[in-house]
Structures are given as structure tokens and as C-alpha cells.
Write a structure and sequence with these properties.
Length: 738
């Protein structure tokens, strides 16, 4: 029978000759030709995904017990299997030893690099450079596919307004427009134009939806989001992913407004009906099983039915579909036709990936060896890391730091770190091959004397190391303090109730400050840090996030001025944790904070605005914006705004600036955000030169969800802001007419 399928495929290939695989009719025929041969058990097998790592429901598979499951056709896809050799071995079992020889799909969280590790997603988002992000994903796909991976569980399309949520590191920040742009760039990079090429892979937008709104920033926690906020803030990046042809979407683990996503008929309707999403829906890790713990399902069988009715095609490591679907089928609670719908989507992806034509296309140890960590990939990771550094403060232009500096003290718990710098979801990234900040600085500042002491650990309370660090500081001309957070290797959570620097790091900074030496603070972390004290007391602060494999080289290049920083924050940094949420695109309120009124939406004990706002970031040069002009100030709904602005580099270095366009709808049926990002461009200008920057924005993109939750573009007055952050801009007005 196995041969029959391959022959059938061959006949169809020959018949279809040079026709594109994406030709729907042929693809459907091929899918149906396989489906018609399958038993109900084989169909259900396709809907089960197993991990090589264990879970609560399924003990660690060190004994490779899953091999038997593959042999008996009880598995359609696997995750966490690494390497061309291993994937080849398992694929061979699926192809040679099962009745029908249907190949497996191998999935993995290939998020910001496979072996060559790039900056974490929030750092990449700080570049505001979609071509760079696309390129990073292309390289990532190239490496991962060479090691047998077909499917990545990325991009994370979750907008979040709460930096206490540790998974903010994996996303693109607080704004739906920027997140959507970054999500599309990643999809294009991973999937390319043809999923059947050996260096492209299927992508997965996760976690549908509002996973980033977990209450209190505690991962997996329940979330309550109004329908309007859901439509305007959390849904758009997923819609953008669906429109960009993403191969799959993952359901979130938590519940939204009382309904766990894995059992939500409302979310099913959005995806399958409103958006006509025809590709795969996958559960999150055991999210179907967790319906029982959430109290939404009575038992595993009930959970299975609810997830199946939500149109989830694949059960990730839950063992629920594998054990329960057949019972539901035998009891005639679900039909074979419904099962076929899911299996069709899975087989379709296998065809699109080219697995029926060559199941081993991706599992080639020779290609793997010559592809992983290619020098040009490592260079690209260094470039991306340089572009991700956001310069937050630079008092008296202490940076760039001259290479003639005599003595530099490099201190702090992350100064010689080679592991945390890779960030979470580092795939097979190796700390040994990473470059620490200390190493990078030593390489760059060859004529300087480098003194080093960690001073303290990232999270501990011990101050035993302080003295050594203070001594190093006293003996140097400048202090580079490298501080921040720890990063887990794979997993996420890291929810924090206090987002200031952990442990005694601030105490160490205070002691260093007392030495009177200038301090440059390099931050390595995955979330905004509350830097109230640091912003007042430290001379220069650079947010480098977790920069990946070449962290140290990139940071040294930025500190020394070889690279002029131009990244901007994709998320607001509050002064204190208590201010959260502090996102830029908040609604207009009746009592706007001002020095003259008492009753306002403000705090009595501290500032209400962000310390470092969305879109903010410094450069070693200065840019001035002028001549903001609109081609028309009155325009109908089907027209577009044609915007012009002049950006002058008035400093003494060449550099890039991120030009940002915001709008404000002045009067509407419901309160509207004070600002909404609607466009951005990264522009380069030599010192002393000006560039004219143009934007075209469709008026239809200025709509909102009205009182009846209908998306409308209303006639009325708007303000348009163009600048280099959400607080620094030129302003003009326009009117939308009927
Ligand atoms: C995470 C997902 C991830 C999956 C597979 C889950 O725990 O929430 O983001 O893709 O595991 O590793």
C-alpha cells in the first residue's frame, strides 16, 4: 500500500508535470488520493503530535518508546527532534515501516535562530527594520531545515502591555501595527515563496489570542479583554499572519473572558469563518488536556470533543486526540467527515513541504554540516545585534567611548556571561561559541587595560563580590556595568512582580557611583526594566536585550562608535513596576494630567508617563524633522494620505533614524487612543545631509470599531504626527470627508 501511495503521487506529479504545487485543484486531488486509503485510526494518528521530551502525561521518551507509536501510525508530527540524522531515522520508520508510508512533520521552536542565535524577538523588533527581520528568519529557516526541521512554532504574534509577563521577550512589543509588520516579515522569511524548497519551513503564529494579556503578567493566567480591545490590539497581528498565508496558528493555553482558547467556538468562528483560515490549527503543549484542570471539560474525552469542535487539527503532546478521538467517532459523536477536514489540512501541509515527493529532503547530514553556523550567518547575527541596541541615555556624550581609554572596569553579573545572552528559545545555540561582553570589549579595546569583576550574581543577595568590583572601578577611567536578568534556555514564564534590576545589582551600581567614575550601563534582559534610579544616576544606558551569539562584539562596536545606534523601543519602559500598564496608545481621558489641576488620571507618589516611551531611542548624531506636509488636508474614505517630511542629520556622524507616523482621531463614537502608530521607515542620512521621507497611508487604515463593534471609517478631524518617538513629533491636521 505504501508503494501505491508513492506511485499515485508520482503519477500525479508526472501528470501535473511542471505545474506549481500550489495549484489548488491538483493539491486537493493528491491529498484526497492519500485520504481515501486511510483507516480512521491512521487519520487520528495524523492529528497527534509527540515530543521527544516528556510531559506530565507522557514520561520522558529516553527509551525512544515513541518509535513504536510512529510504527503503528499513531503519530503525524513530532516536536523537539533535532538533527538531520535523527530526523532521517524517524522519517525512515514512518515512510518504510508504516502501512501507508505517510511522512512525519518535524516541528521545533525555532524562534530567533537555530544554531546561530540572533537577538530575541523584542530586540529584533527594536530595529524597526522589516527587511532585516525577514533576512534573520530566512537564515534561521536555512539552518533549521538543514537539520531536518519542517515547521517552526514562531512567530509569537502576542501583543503585550505588561512587562511583568516574561514572554514579552518573545514578542514584538506593545503595538499591534509594529507587531503585525514584524510578524509578516518573519513569515516571509521562514516560509519564503515556496514551502517545498529545502530551505523554507512552515511558520506558526501563536498564541491565539490575547495570551499576552495574562492577568498580573503571570504566565498562563486568565485574561479579561474587552471585545473592542481584542479587535484593535490583540487580533491584528494574527489577522496579518492569516492574510500573509501562514501555514498554522497555535491556540493559547489560557482562557479569554472565561473561555479557554482551546475550546472557544467564538475564536473558531473568527478564524475559520470571519478570516477563512484554511490551514492548520495546533493546540499549545497539552492545552487540550488542561481544559480539564481549567474546569471547562469534565474529563479527557470531553476535552477532546471541545477541542475538536474548536477545529483544532493537531494535539501537541497532549495524548488526548490519540486516546479519545476514536471513542467519540465510535459513539457517533463526531463524524469521519469532520475528521477528514483536519486530516486534509495536515496532509496538505505535508504535500506543500514536498514530503510526499522526498520525505528526506530536509534530513541531509552533509547539508546540515555545511550550513550550521556558516560564517556569513554569524556575521548576520552580529549585524542584527548591533542594530537592536537602544541607546537610552548618553549624558555629556560619554559614548562612544574612545579606543584610547586607558583603563576600563567591566563589572556586573552578566559581564562575562555566554549563556543568558542567547535568550530563551535558543534552539541548539551553544553558549560555548557565544561572545561575552567582556570578550567583545577586550577584542575591541586592545590598547586599554581591562579590569574585570562580576561584583554580584544576577539574582542573589550576597554582596561579597562588591569590594572587588569597587576596586576595579577605582583603578579605572570608566566603568562598564553589564547587568540585567537571567534567561531560561527554552522555556518562558519568568513572570515578575517587580521589574527593577533583580538582586543587589542596583546596590552595586550605587557603590560604583560613589567611586565618582563615569558609568556606562549595558542592559541584557528580555523585558522593560524599571530604571527610575538608574536613569537619574548613571551616565549612559544602552538596552542591548539578549543579543545572541555575537553579543559581545556587537556591544563593543556600539560602545566604541563603530556602529551608530539607531534602534527604538517597541515597548514603553515605566519608572516603577506599580505604573504598569503604561503603554503609549492609551485612550484619551477626561482629566488629563497637568500641573494646574488636582483631580487627574495621575499618581500622587510618582510619574504616570513612561520613563522611556515607545518609539524612543538615541543616536550618536542628532536628527531634526521639518516641513511636515500633506498633499491634501481633506480627503474621502477611499483616498490615501500622502505625507512628506524632511529629516536632517544635524550632528557630526552618519546615521539612521526611524521615522514614525502616528494619528489621533479627534472625535468618535467611542474613546480613541491618544496616538496610534500607522507607519514607520528606517532612513539613512549622512552627517549634514537631509532626506525627504514619504509615506502613503490609506484612509481605510484609520478606521476603528464603533459602538456596535463594526469596523468603520468615520468622517471627521484627525491629527497627524510624524517624529522619532511617540512623544517627539511634528503635528498637522486633516479631515476625512464622506
Ligand atoms: C509554549 C509554546 C511552544 C510549545 C512547544 C509551549 O509550552 O507555550 O509557545 O511553542 O510549548 O515547545
Amino acid at each position: 500500500m505504501r508503494l501505491l501511495i508513492l506511485n499515485l503521487s508520482l503519477v500525479i506529479i508526472l501528470f501535473s508535470c511542471s505545474q506549481e504545487k500550489s495549484n489548488d485543484a491538483i493539491l486537493n486531488q493528491r491529498v484526497d488520493s492519500v485520504l481515501s486509503l486511510m483507516t480512521i485510526q491512521e487519520k487520528i494518528g495524523q492529528m497527534a503530535q509527540l515530543s521527544s521530551w516528556g510531559s506530565e502525561n507522557r514520561p520522558l521518551n529516553e527509551d525512544l518508546s515513541y518509535l513504536q507509536e510512529i510504527r503503528t501510525g499513531r503519530v503525524g508530527s513530532m516536536l523537539n527532534i533535532n538533527g538531520a540524522e535523527m530526523t532521517y531515522k524517524l522519517q525512515r520508520i514512518a515512510v518504510e515501516e508504516t502501512r501507508l508510508g505517510i511522512p512525519l512533520i518535524f516541528g521545533f521552536d525555532v524562534v530567533h535562530g537555530y544554531q546561530t542565535i540572533f537577538p530575541i524577538p523584542i530586540a529584533l523588533s527594536s530595529t524597526w527594520d522589516t527587511s532585516l527581520v525577514r533576512w534573520v528568519s530566512e537564515i534561521t529557516a536555512c539552518e533549521a531545515t538543514s537539520a531536518g526541521q519542517h515547521w517552526t512554532f514562531a512567530p509569537m504574534a502576542d501583543v503585550t502591555r505588561d512587562p511583568r509577563w516574561g514572554r514579552i521577550a518573545e514578542g514584538c512589543g506593545e503595538d499591534p501595527f509594529l507587531t503585525s509588520a514584524m510578524v509578516i516579515a518573519q513569515i516571509k522569511g521562514f516560509q519564503g515563496k515556496d514551502l517545498g524548497l529545502k530551505n523554507t519551513m512552515a511558520a506558526c503564529a501563536k498564541h491565539f489570542v490575547a495570551y499576552g494579556a495574562a492577568e498580573g503578567g503571570r504566565d498562563y493566567n486568565t485574561c479579561e479583554v474587552s471585545d473592542r480591545t481584542l479587535q484593535e490590539i490583540y487580533m491584528p497581528p494574527f489577522k496579518a499572519a492569516a492574510d500573509a498565508g501562514i501555514a498554522s496558528i497555535m491556540m493559547a493555553l489560557n482562557d479569554l473572558n472565561g473561555v479557554p482558547s482551546s475550546s472557544s467556538s467564538e475564536l473558531k468562528q473568527v478564524l475559520r469563518e470571519n478570516w477563512s483560515f484554511k490551514n492548520i490549527l495546533v493546540s499549545d503543549w497539552n492545552s487540550i488536556g488542561e481544559l480539564v484542570t481549567q474546569g471547562k471539560a469534565e474529563n479527557a474525552k470531553d476535552a477532546c470533543l471541545q477541542a475538536f469542535n474548536t477545529s483544532i487539527d493537531i494535539d501537541m503532546q497532549g495524548n488526548i486526540y490519540a486516546n479519545q478521538l476514536e471513542k467519540l467517532y465510535n459513539e457517533k459523536i463526531i463524524s469521519e467527515k469532520e475528521i477528514d477536514n483536519s486530516v486534509r489540512r495536515i496532509l496538505k501541509l505535508k504535500f506543500l513541504l514536498g514530503l510526499f515527493d522526498d520525505p528526506y529532503l530536509y534530513s541531509d547530514p552533509v547539508r546540515e554540516k555545511s550550513t550550521l553556523s556558516k560564517p556569513e550567518f554569524i556575521k548576520a547575527s552580529e549585524y542584527a545585534a548591533c542594530q537592536s541596541v537602544v541607546l537610552l541615555k548618553n549624558k555629556s556624550n560619554i559614548l562612544p567611548l574612545s579606543q584610547k581609554t586607558g583603563k576600563i572596569a567591566v563589572v556586573g553579573p552578566l559581564s562575562d556571561d555566554k549563556s543568558n545572552i542567547l535568550g530563551s528559545w535558543r534552539a541548539i545555540g551553544e553558549p560555548d561559541s557565544a561572545v561575552s561582553v567582556l570578550e567583545g570589549i577586550k577584542t575591541k579595546y586592545t590598547n586599554s587595560k581591562i579590569l574585570h569583576a562580576e561584583g554580584c550574581s544576577i539574582e542573589g543577595s550576597s554582596k561579597n563580590g562588591f569590594e572587588q568590583a569597587i576596586q576595579a572601578a577605582n583603578n579605572s577611567d570608566v566603568i562598564i556595568a553589564v547587568m540585567g536578568e537571567r534567561s531560561p534556555e527554552v522555556n518562558k514564564t519568568l513572570s515578575a512582580s517587580d521589574i527593577s534590576l533583580p538582586g543587589v545589582q542596583r546596590d552595586l551600581l550605587k557603590e560604583l557611583k560613589a567611586t565618582g567614575k563615569p558609568i556606562v550601563l549595558i542592559l541584557l534582559n528580555g523585558r522593560p526594566i524599571a530604571l527610575d534610579w538608574e536613569s537619574k544616576n548613571i551616565d549612559a544606558i544602552a538596552e542591548a536585550w539578549f543579543p545572541g551569539t555575537k553579543a559581545g562584539n556587537a556591544i563593543a562596536k556600539v560602545i566604541s562608535g563603530e556602529i551608530n545606534p539607531c534602534a527604538k523601543l517597541p515597548v514603553s519602559f515605566p519608572h516603577t513596576t506599580g505604573q504598569i500598564p503604561v503603554y503609549y496608545n492609551h485612550k484619551k481621558f477626561g482629566r488629563t494630567p497637568s500641573p494646574n489641576t488636582k483631580e487627574q488620571a495621575k499618581y500622587d507618589d510618582g510619574p504616570e508617563e513612561a520613563l522611556f516611551p515607545f518609539g524612543y531611542g538615541l543616536s550618536y548624531t542628532q536628527f531634526e524633522f521639518s516641513d511636515l506636509a500633506l498633499e491634501k488636508n481633506k480627503l474621502p474614505k477611499d483616498d490615501s494620505l500622502n505625507i512628506r517630511v524632511t529629516v536632517a542629520n544635524t550632528g557630526d556622524r552618519d546615521g539612521c533614524e526611524i521615522v514614525q507616523v502616528y494619528v489621533r482621531d479627534l472625535i468618535a463614537e467611542v474613546t480613541r487612543p491618544i496616538l496610534e502608530l500607522k507607519g514607520f521607515q528606517k532612513v539613512y542620512a549622512e552627517k549634514g545631509r537631509s532626506v525627504e521621507v514619504r509615506f502613503k497611508i490609506a484612509v481605510s487604515d484609520l478606521g476603528y470599531y464603533n459602538i456596535d463593534l463594526k469596523h468603520v471609517v468615520e468622517p471627521g478631524n484627525f491629527e497627524l504626527m510624524v517624529g522619532n518617538s511617540s512623544v517627539n513629533y511634528l503635528k498637522t491636521k486633516f479631515t476625512v470627508i464622506d
